[in-house]
Amino acid sequence: MVLPITAFYASLLGICYLYLSFLVIGARRRHNVSLGDGGHEDLGRLARAHGNFSEYVPITLIMIACFEANTGQAWAVHALGSAILFGRVLHAYGLGKHAGVSWQRFAGMLLTFLAMLVTAVGNLALIHFGM
């Protein structure tokens, strides 16, 4: 089974994940911290951005892959992939740059939750109604 749209977004998200990893590694080296954040706020925020990314992206990509496999609606798969991609980028940027609430974090979480919810409901509808 070929899932080219999911593969496209998974690849872009993989590059984002590597970028976040390198940011955390750089901050760890700069502060000489191997575990935890050593009390450095910037390292703590970067580590959370990296961790948050790894918490939301895998399950969403799995659901998007299922959706792509079960429907021929490429535009919908692109919409879902774009929502998780831009949602995670916005959220990571907001978390990495702002200690408190920011519009980037808020919008990023909204896009992430929207992608997850629409994909989950879409998959359930496809399974139940055989659309």
User: What gyration radius follows from the Cα positions, in whole Å?
Assistant: 17 Å
Instruction: Give the termini separation.
Output: 19 Å
Instruction: Based on Cα principal axes, name the global outline.
Output: elongated
Share in β-strands:
under 5%
What is the assembly state of the chains in this entry? Answer: single chain
Mean pLDDT over the residues: 91
What is the number of E strands?
0
Q: What does the main sheet amount to?
A: none
Number of helices: 4
Helices and strands: which structural class? mainly alpha
Order of helices and strands: HHHH
Low-pLDDT runs: none
Helix content: over 70%
Report what the structure shows.
The structure is a single chain. 83% of the residues lie in helices and 0% in strands. The protein contains four helices and no strands. α1 runs antiparallel to α2 and α3 runs antiparallel to α4. The protein starts with a helix and ends with a helix.
What is the fold's blueprint, element by element?
Layout (H helix, E strand, L loop, with lengths): L3 H28 L9 H30 L3 H24 L5 H27 L2
Summarize the structure.
The protein is mostly helical and 131 residues long. The protein has helices spanning 4-31, 41-70, 74-97, 103-129.
What are the main properties of this structure?
elongated, mainly alpha
